Amino acid sequence: MVIKAIIFDVDGTLADTEEAHRIAFNRAFAENSLDWNWDVALYGKLLKVTGGKERIQYFVSDFLGDCAKPENFDGFVKHLHQAKTAHYTAMLADGRIPLRPGIKQLIGDARAAGIRLAIATTTSPENVAGLLEMGLGKDWESCFAANGCGDIVPHKKPAPDIYHWVLGKLRLAPADCIALEDSENGLRASLAAGIKTYITTNHYTRGQDFTGAAAVFDDLNDPGDFYHAVGLAPPTRNHPA
Ligand code: XBP
Ligand code: MG
What we know:
Rossmann fold; 2 domains; binds xylulose-1,5-bisphosphate
């Protein structure tokens, strides 16, 4: 199999971001005088639902009960999520969320090998831009042939929509690509799109069901294992971390 493109998930894969998301949610709740506090254990449960707006809706309906729903619930959720995104992008701008070890090297080596790169994520576009501008520099967008994120598709992961969107942009068949994901939701999305998928776990996703994954890695600290699994030449050099 000649890989023509690697499609990257963002949160949990390119960077270990969910703790920062969790803190940003809680800051948005506090500044809106809501006594909600998503601790690590609760957030781990709420990650069952992808998309920040959908996650807030899930929390209210399934954890607080519909009685907690304010008037104009959609507008309320949208406002809260905008506040949360402002807190999250501020943390990104402070350089507090680095790319995971091995990611920058993989991106550089894949590009050097002529492999196209793409993004398929449920997070918001401003979050992708903030993370990758800090991690890859101002011209980060030139690294990616397609950037599928947020609300551009009607159904978020585990639905395959975002992967179908990216394949369309790449004008490639699923068999020409591989995906790198961190979660069961992400794996179900990429497999439903017919894409061979590798998993790199984190503390929120370790222990999830990765049935169907081509391989599961704790991390890419030694990308040689990943390179061997996907048929890339071993890393030639360490790209600056
Ligand atoms: C992870 C998600 C996102 C983030 C929060 O996305 O499900 O919702 O948790 O980001 P992925 P937003 O793993 O697909 O990158 O609040 O912007 O949704
Ligand atoms: Mg993810």
